[in-house]
Amino acid sequence: MYDGIVQELIDEFGRLPGIGPKSAQRITFHILQTPNFDVARLAELLTDIRQRVRFCEVCGNVSEQERCAICRDPRRNPALICVVEDAKDVSAIERTREFRGLYHVLGGAISPIAGIGPEDLRIAQLMTRLADGTVQEVILATNPNLEGRRRRPTSAVCWARSRSPCRAWPPASLSAETSSTLMR
Ligand SMILES: [Zn+2]
After folding, report:
1. Which fold has domain 73-183?
2. Coil, strand or helix: which one is 61?
3. CA of 12 to the centre of ligand 1 (A)
4. For the whole model, what pTM was predicted?
5. What is the DSSP string of 98-133?
6. CA distance 114 to 117
7. 4-52: CATH architecture
8. In angstroms, what is the span from residue 131 Cα to ligand 1's centroid?
9. Where in the sequence of the chain do the CATH 1.10.8.420 domains occur?
10. pLDDT digits (tens, 9 = 90+) for 129-149
11. How remote is the CA of residue 117 from the centroid of ligand 1, in Å?
12. Tens digits of per-residue pLDDT, 28-65?
């Protein structure tokens, strides 16, 4: 334990996902002891991210405008939608540069343990997007984890399956190396 503000900052970093007490301490002392560390820049970014970043009104991806860069890109194929749980998944798939369709971010996974049901996710928005017939194919890129195995198919997913060749991720068209990267 340290005195006052030092411990307060360590505790605050320790509350972040994936950062244990040792990492929290290391980050705090890095900020404290590195002469050229730009504290003002970090503080500015932390403030600005909450003010400037929103969620795309179409797909739910992070964006600084009403529609994200992917939804605004006319070269993307609007007939193909990849359904993912989080915006992080969009980033992972985009890094492969192999998917040219659009996305739909659910904003989490259905989890009875955590009390997250279909109504907490962006499933109604997915239904709306599928309604006008533009989308011909839906790819589910949700993770096959513990929650995934427990998850019942949502109504939107069942509906999408009934009207399009709904495939599991990753599609066979991706290289084996890319597929294994995405499934990790
Ligand atoms: Zn979007």
Report:
1. Dna Topoisomerase Vi A Subunit; Chain: A, domain 2 (3.40.1360)
2. coil
3. 32
4. 0.68
5. ---EEEEE-SS--BTTTTB-GGGTTHHHHHHHHHTS
6. 9
7. Orthogonal Bundle (1.10)
8. 17
9. 4-52
10. 988 888 888 888 876 554 444
11. 23
12. 999 999 999 999 999 999 999 999 999 999 999 999 99
